[in-house]
Amino acid sequence: MPSLPPDLLDGIRDAAPLHLGIAPFGLVAGVAAIEQGLSIFHAIGFSTVVFAGASQLAMIELLGADAPLAIVIGTAVVVNLRMMMYSASIAPYFRGFAARSKTVASYLLTDQAYALSLARYGRDGETDRFAYYFGVAASLWFVWQLSTIAGAFLGAGLPPEWGFEFAAPLVFLALLVPALKDRASAASGLVGGLVAVAVVAAGVPFHLDIMVAAIVGVGAGLAVESLGGDA
């Protein structure tokens, strides 16, 4: 039986500490999908096709609120715009990959896979880049899917009166607080939060609060950063 490439095993090993962090997140995503009216089949399919933590939760919230499909998709695109920057940054390392490998890599791209892979490529020029990337990204995908599946079945078995509607907002808060590392990110989070509340309070139709808040929040963060706000 052929052994697995060492770099692939390194990728799995390096990603292992992150598995403990994303498992509860995936569990909540599965529960939230059921709480918002998706069936177990749709919840699992949704997680497999979308595979994007924060935007996945945002889409679930919007679908549960019967937001127009264009708003749901637009919100996911806005939340995931950073993936375009990640792709542009990591693309030079993937230039020699076959088209099929690039397709797989693009589907599996996450914040964690990008960060770990770029750090590895920078310090070890002999790394089998695809093997390492696949070890990190595929192991994260596997844990995420298992977690959301478990969450979907758990959510389906919970009594409605337990009221787990708060689960998704709590996860967003848990993700937000550690990300506020400098003035630019703090400005982005604060402005985005205030704008989201203002949009809801103003009664703007079509559930545009997440999309508008994301756009304005990112703009505020970029403005502060351009003014030297990270000092």
From TrEMBL:
Residue ranges of the TM segments: 15-34, 41-63, 69-94, 130-156, 162-180, 187-204, 210-228
One GO term describing the cellular component: plasma membrane
Subcellular location: Cell membrane
Top-level division of the source organism's lineage: Archaea
Topology of this chain in the membrane: Multi-pass membrane protein
Keyword Transmembrane helix: yes
Keyword Membrane: yes
Keywords: Cell membrane, Membrane, Transmembrane, Transmembrane helix, Transport
GO BP field: L-valine transmembrane transport
Annotated family: Belongs to the AzlC family.
PANTHER family: INNER MEMBRANE PROTEIN YGAZ (PTHR34979:SF1)
Listed name of the protein: Branched-chain amino acid ABC transporter permease
